[in-house]
UniProtKB/TrEMBL annotation:
InterPro entries: Expansin/allergen_DPBB_dom, Expansin_CellWall, RlpA-like_sf. This is Expansin-A14 (Alpha-expansin-14) (OsEXP14) (OsEXPA14) (OsaEXPa1.11). Keywords: Signal. Residues 1-16 form the signal peptide. Residues 240-279 are annotated as: Disordered.
Length: 279
């Protein structure tokens, strides 16, 4: 093998692994799975405490278009899968010959499905051209498309010591998260779909640093107007995302603030040109 050919093989991007599973459906009601019984489902993106389907964390392209699914307990784990996107493909082969081959990308918002994936009727129909039953599908992880407002962290619930948060509108699920208050770092814990931090009595400027599964880092600065001002339903946005192994990016010209009340985040974005962060 020539040196050029060897380098081409070694440097080509790795392909996502394709798995085999099954897919079923839930009803077509607007809040199925993602806001089931107004509890925000396992991943809490549309929890009623934060505003249900109007929550800042529920405004991903997949939730607003009803392209979302629950997964079985084996895939869900401790919630590490929340927000992950998969391409589901039905190639035919249903025992009764139902439906027609199709494919689409969905986002994971809940757990407890009987099949590998239980999807909102909208997504189920796009993939199978059918409205009920269990279908054999292949699935592979893909980066999520994101809404233009950028990554967001929402306050799910809080008391004096323990505060729950939901991260959303990311390309990949959150691998690790830190909460920084007044310069002190509090390592956050994943608890079945939401992230929590035990802080005790503390005040100060508030920010977050999270790392996605693919190694990219997201920073949220100057959130909520300070820690003592945080309230359930508050949201903090950022425009920024960077790869730790890469040199710092040049500041974007004319970058603007996007966010809910009390947010003054103003970070910069670094992303490979062929995979824009915000379509």
């Amino acid at each position: 093998m020539s040196l050029k050919l060897l380098l081409a093989v070694l440097l080509q991007p790795s392909l996502a692994k394709v798995y085999q599973g099954t897919m079923s459906m839930w009803s077509e009601t607007k809040d199925t799975l993602v806001a089931y019984k107004s509890e925000g489902s396992a991943c809490k993106f549309a929890d009623r405490l934060m505003g249900g389907l109007n929550s800042a964390t529920a405004q991903t392209p997949y939730i607003t278009s009803k392209n979302y699914c629950a997964v079985n307990r084996g895939l869900f784990g401790n919630g590490e899968i929340c927000g992950r996107c998969y391409r589901l493909t039905y190639k035919g082969g249903h025992e009764q010959g139902l439906g027609r081959p199709g494919s689409d990308v969905v986002q994971i918002v809940d757990s407890g499905s009987w099949a590998t994936f239980d999807c909102h009727m909208t997504a189920f129909n796009k993939i199978t051209d059918y409205n009920t039953g269990f279908f054999p599908v292949s699935y592979e992880e893909v980066p999520c498309n994101t809404a233009s407002q950028g990554p967001v962290v929402g306050v799910l619930q809080y008391d004096y010591y323990w505060t729950k948060f939901v991260f959303s509108n990311l390309r990949y699920p959150v691998k690790s998260a830190d909460l920084i208050i007044g310069g002190k770092t509090h390592h956050m814990k994943l608890v079945g779909g939401y992230w929590g931090a035990w802080t005790g009595p503390i005040t100060g400027e508030t920010s977050f640093k999270i790392t996605e599964e693919n190694g990219y880092q997201v920073t949220f600065n100057n959130c909520f107007g300070g820690w003592k001002n945080r309230k359930t339903g508050d949201a903090c946005y950022t425009n920024g995302r960077s790869k730790a192994a890469l040199p710092p990016p040049e500041p974007e010209v004319g970058s603007s603030l996007r966010g809910a009340k009390h947010n003054t985040s103003n970070a910069t974005e670094m992303e490979a040109p062929e995979t824009p962060l915000y379509p």
